[in-house]
Batch of 3 targets.
Target 1
Amino acid sequence: MTATVESHGARIPLIGLGTWDLRGKTCAKMVEEALKLGYRHIDTAAMYGNEEAVGDGLRASGVPRDEVFITTKVWSSDLRARDFERSARDSIKKLKLPSVDLLLIHWPNPSIPLKETMGALCKMKREGVARHIGVSNFTVALIEEAVGYATEPLVNNQIECHPYLDQGKPIAASRKRGLSVTAYSPIARGRVKGDAVLSRIGKAHGKTAAQVCLRYLVQHDVIVIPRTSRSERLKENFAVFDFKLTPAEMKEIAGLAHPGGRVVEWGGAPEWDD
């Protein structure tokens, strides 16, 4: 049984496969392998251009659809109501699924009224395109605004999160409003692998620095979706539930956060809380 986080009836597996930058047969193969290994959470997005491959991998795995949690996202240029609905329906068509488990606003877009976008997002839940809905890259202020406009429960805020970036404010704001938190780039796009602190802690547990990083997040009940195109990394990333970090180790890892720790920069990003 995969460990999960619950939010407004959504049971989201604590570890999933991120598929950003995976394409075609490589993407399908990774999804298939992940599900056969025991993963039960796959994250994709319209912007990734791989939803068809994700669906192919899901079917090739032989794992029943109702055992897998599928997340997709609508890109920031499609946040007008009509565009949003089209994008969401295109996603399930490409996945060859009647619905997704979680539909997110990928990035906020200040040029489009959030009230309009939230109306479309909630409509997709009511019409069965998505079982659950949420947001991504939302700051404290945007979380409050989104919750105010939502007529359906929001269950998740997906944000960049790893030991080098202090995300205490958006995590607290999300949880205050009942949203779970998913970490993308949870191993800081590979930067943690040579970290002396994480490597030393890992050695004490017979684990790698990346595994320590993932364990740190899941021990905080933050969902992680590491991306990989390598079978051995797929196995490594999943093996984080057979050890536990001590309070002293958790504190030391938290101390790695520093200004400039963010690894994902995008021109359309909001003004961050960190």
Note: The chain has a mean pLDDT of 97.
Target 2
Amino acid sequence: MKKYLIFLLLISGSLLSQDYIQIIKPDINIRMRPTTASPIVGTAFEGEEYILNGEKGKWYSVLLPSGETRWIYKRLAEKTNIKDSLPNSVNILNVQEELKIVSEKAHEDSNEEVIKDLNKIEINNILFDRYSLIVLQTHNISPIFYEEIINYVEPVIIKKREILAEYMVSVSHIDYDLFKIDFFNFYIETRRCFKLGSALDAKVFMYYEGEDFIQKLCFEDGYGKGFENCYNIKNIYSAVLEDPHLVALTKDGKIKKTNLILKEALLDLPDSNY
């Protein structure tokens, strides 16, 4: 049992003591292999930190965004186990999007790029590392933060809901996305509602969610199941004229026959819960 405990402590200790290297010379080459004859993957700048992956002779091996091992000459960097924090000024979502774009660009460019003795996958990985480094360097971000940025998920902000009004109504379908509130001169325009019929039991909900004003028209999914089948309200109108022989002039100067002319209105029904 003691042996297993010691083994676990060693593993956890090694994970916590991740080593890095910091570049101590300006504008140095990152190589694909530990030799100056190897293809250049990208450029490292003074002060940048890289995840140390090992050593071989006069070279440090580091991990880049592709997950491949790359090489930096030892005299141009020094070991460190202190990891800087990602600057608060960084817009992580913007950088994340830029990294996704260059990933696609690397894939496309690898179809045209030719590097001697390298296959398409190796070329794609080199271009991906090169383009990703440029994005990170443009934002003054060390490459050690690549995984943190690419895996970042924006926190879900739960907005406080402030109920303004709830109306129990009967509505009838008039036209595409248009319902009339029965017994009142109000019409509700929804967004992509496919509910048909007349004298339908419904509820109109009005509330603030954070700073957003939201209006919904909700129907019952089934008797006694509550008004959970909801559609966003685009606008609310009242009728100005209603006659089967009306003619309307549109904004673009066209004349159209209609039997109903509406104007925007504020919903004001009795027994509201303001």
Note: The radius of gyration is 32 Å.
Target 3
Amino acid sequence: MRGARRGPLPGFGLALGFTLSYLGALVLLPFAALLLRALQLTPARFWELVSTPRTLAAFRLSFGAALAAAAVNLLCGLLVAWVLERYRFPGRRLLDALVDLPFALPTAVAGIALTALWDERGWLGALVAPLGIRVANTPLGVLVALVFIGLPFVVRTVQPVLRGLEPALEEAAASLGASRRQAFARVLLPELRPAALTGFVLALARGLGEYGSVIFIAGNLPERTEIAPLLIMIRLEEYDLAGATAIAATFLAASLLLLFAVNLLSWRQRRRVGAA
């Protein structure tokens, strides 16, 4: 009897066991603990904790700002990636390195810098204040912070795809009579769409969980500029473990459902592009 056929790489069982144990301990176990804690609350008490006007306002701001920031980053990230990959100009390498600045900066430092920049007496805040536009201590400040920290996710996921697309594709489309707009929409965009959606999902996930850079510029006004992660921290500081658990469980469940829906859309788009 011939032995079982072995794969080219040894240690699959050990590596798989380590991976599952690692993910279980670091990811699944905290989620399970949160779920068990939430199940200790009665449905009436749970609904009472998550349906207060302050909590609902925090949910609306967190999800709305994260979605809006991810959409802005999707458009701006595509443009930035296109400029960095398709054009050659002095300072291009420096600009490319600056894209990673939100990754390198501690979130608290980013929040303080954005607040100093967009405050009514800051460089940019003073320019828009005469127009009646306030950024710091408003929901717009939350959006600005989330756009800042989410842009690299779109740029870095789109750049490798753009780098792999030869300019000859655009030249071939032009030789067949396609305009630049048609060449981009029918030749390049279908190839870029899966990577762009992946960047959108990553920026959205980062925006939903962002805390440090937002609390400085938001002002943290209840029912106006208070985000859900901050409200969870406030409940913990008040020793209201039940309130923090209910808000965290609801926020986690809604975030997972939203990310699952967007990932499903991205997966279907990849299948469509692969089938084509």
Note: The radius of gyration is 23 Å.
